[in-house]
Fold this sequence. Notes:
- This protein is mainly alpha-helical and 325 residues long.
- Helix content is 59%, strand content 4%.
- It has one domain (15-293).
- The protein has helices at 4-32, 51-55, 68-77, 79-85, 97-109, 124-133, 139-155, 158-161, 180-194, 199-205, 212-231, 234-259, 264-293; strands spanning 61-63, 116-119, 165-167, 172-175.
- It starts with a helix and ends in a 32-residue tail after the last helix.
- Residues 185, 189, 216, 219 line the site of zinc ion.
Amino acid sequence: METQAAAHSRSRSNLRSIWLLALVLFATLPTLGCHPLSPKRIDITRQYVAPELLQANALPIERGKPRPVIDTIGWVIGIPSKLLFWNRKIENHAISAETEQVLAGYLEENHLQHVKVRLNQYRPFDDFRRLSKNRSVAWPWRYTFGTFSVLGEAIVPGRLFGGDHFNPFTNTVHLYSDVPAIALHEAAHAKDFSRRCFQGTYAALYALPVVPLYHESIATSDVMDYGETSLHDPELQRQAYNVLYPAYGTYVGGAAGTIFPPISFPAYYGSVAAGHLAGRLQSRRIGNDWEGRHDEPQLEVEQSTLGNEDGNISDDERLEYQVRE
Ligand SMILES: [Zn+2]
């Protein structure tokens, strides 16, 4: 049984942990704007893609049929996420043509024709088929972690419960939110994986504590760069700062919570709040910069010259196919 002195000592220790974390958050807040999430393009000089997956992906973007009852229930289930990220289009289960167009441009420019995008669509059997074809992930990873990941998507359908994500084992982006910055972020994960030799290992590492911060910062930094250098779209840049910064905060908070379990709750929400603050400060700065530098802000998706009409890639282009087992 715990004595009163021991209880006091424990509560003092918890208090110290809270202060320590608050100091860490305070110290890292200013760096959020310039370090882990600053614009940085993912280098895709080399990409490793399973040819079977590319050949089977005649229709890279698919859309689920509207199901008003299910989508309305999904919208309601997504209310906490809408509040957390302060955006009503999060998990609205109604993805617009504009978001689809931005995403299609990104996939083409970054040679991601092997990636499947499911817009509010539930297709677990197709995903199992993609899992078996995705030989860029070694089979021991595919038939353990990969199988569990697809089973998870089948049992807890995003169509109802939301949760935009990229599954590296099936090379599939699942979207339920009508937010272009989130769509690009998930596709940026696909881009990051495509340049990795050991994609299964890279995916498995994501399951470890703190490690996701690395993967997440790479994907978000690429979106920041894409908004600035390819789309020339200040609105998308502002959206990226406003949404992806607090989203990164969820990972910072999750990591802090695993290091200091007693303060996981304040760490999580404190990090999201810090992300909102840092993101909004950055997005305001973007607005001012653009007004000064660009006369006509425009939404323009640059079309890649790579790939022919059939979606095939010729030999002299940068895509390098390498099948790994
Ligand atoms: Zn992510």
